[in-house]
Amino acid sequence: MRNWKVAAVAATVLAMVFAAGCGGKTETKTESKDIKIGGNFEMTGGVAQYGQSAANGVKLAFKEVNAAGGVLGKQINFVIADNKSEPAEAANATTKLISQDKVVAIVGPAASGNVLASIPVASEHKIPLLTPTGTNPKVTVENGKVKDYAFRVCFIDPFQGTIMANFASNDLKAKTAAIYVDSSSDYSKALAQVFEQYFTKNGGKIVAKEAFLQKDQDFKSALTKIKATNPEVVYIPAYYEEVSKIIKQARELGLSVPMLGSDGWDSPKLVEIAGAAALTNTFFTNHYSSQDKDPRVAKFVESYKKEYGQEPDAFAVLGYDGGLMMIDAIKRANSTEPVKIKEALAQIKNLQVVTGILSMDANHDPIKSAVIIEMKEGKQTFRTKVNP
Asked: Which Pfam family, any one of them, does this sequence belong to (predicted)?
């Protein structure tokens, strides 16, 4: 009888151990059902328009892949942290996503300054970071050294600065130009430097250089000085909030020459603040045009409008492309290990995304095209595409 009881107890213990083992495995499967990707974006603050658009693009890409069955049999869980449009907060958001949310990769931030503040944290923890829109060259390469865990979706500032200088010289036939730069922005200063370099190389002359600061409201004094030099074009590489006011005030002063700019102009608020009439005869470099005849562009625009009720800007399409690049990397890595995802991002080749076919170069920058947008009656119109 005692032997029977002992055997029964032993059997019960074994059953409990086995059940516990099975329970542990089931729990592990539950925990690994999804793939956590972080989103570090400017959801509030000075450039919230950019961060929100980019985040919406990423979300749409992940929503579509999840609806199609996910990646590696798992759903992508996109966890967004708000960096409040501030570098210090961007670093904090990166720490939170890695330490608390346990993400395996990060998409964002949107603004170069916030990206630069986030990369050291991501690199220290060996988590790949892919910015959709950080165009500053230092995002991926600094002091001649490629940053192992940093990648981007967009072209870099020297590329768009060169394109606009060539457009001013070759298409607009301008021989003189004025530059109005945001001296509080590395983005703006870098673009101005490249534009000046290539415009003068083309035989042009810079007749005026003026500066402003972010959040300035009155630009008429500097614009009056610029007007007095009779430039044939004015280059304003800055963000839409100040640019829209600058253009409005320039037109009020009778400065009617072409105004040229960069991808930072791309926002519906540009027209809202400047007014459609003031924007006549303005041009800026951008990452895509919704008027591109490529059917992939039309499909994306339709899907984005259906999801968010508005037309996507360049930040939205680059966010979407960033989502596609991350999906592609995880698939090719056949793993959710951050190091393997990083390696797969570096090896992207001939990937079809909305903005074209791209390959990653040795500096972790994509080789891709750019477009020049002309504003007509308050609407963006496709002027030309420039290949690298």
From this structure: Peripla_BP_6
Strands (E), 194-272: 205-212, 233-235, 259-261
User: What is the per-residue pLDDT for 291?
Assistant: 80
Phi and psi of 224, rounded to 5°? -65, -40
Q: Residue 118's pLDDT is what?
A: 98
Crossing angle of the two packed helices 295-308 and 314-333, in degrees rounded to 10: 110
Which residues, given as ranges, of the chain have pLDDT below 50?
Answer: 1-31
Which residue, 42, 31, 207, 19, is CA-closest to 111?
42
109: preceding bond cis by omega (within 30 degrees): yes
pLDDT, residue 369, reads: 86
Q: How many CA atoms lie within 13 A of 320 on its CB side?
A: 27
Domains belonging to the chain, first-starting first, are 34-155+293-368 (3.40.50.2300), 158-286 (3.40.50.2300)
Q: Which residues, 6 or more positions from 124, have their beta carbon under 8 angstroms from its beta carbon?
A: none
Token pair belonging to 327: 């999906």
Residue range 186-203, pLDDT digits in tens: 889 999 999 999 999 999
**Tokens standing for residue 141:** 């390469």
How far is the C-alpha of 205 from the C-alpha of 180, rounded, in Å? 15
Output phi, psi for 39, to 5 deg: -125, 115
Evaluate if pTM is beyond 0.90: no
Helix (H) or strand (E) holding 271: helix 268-274
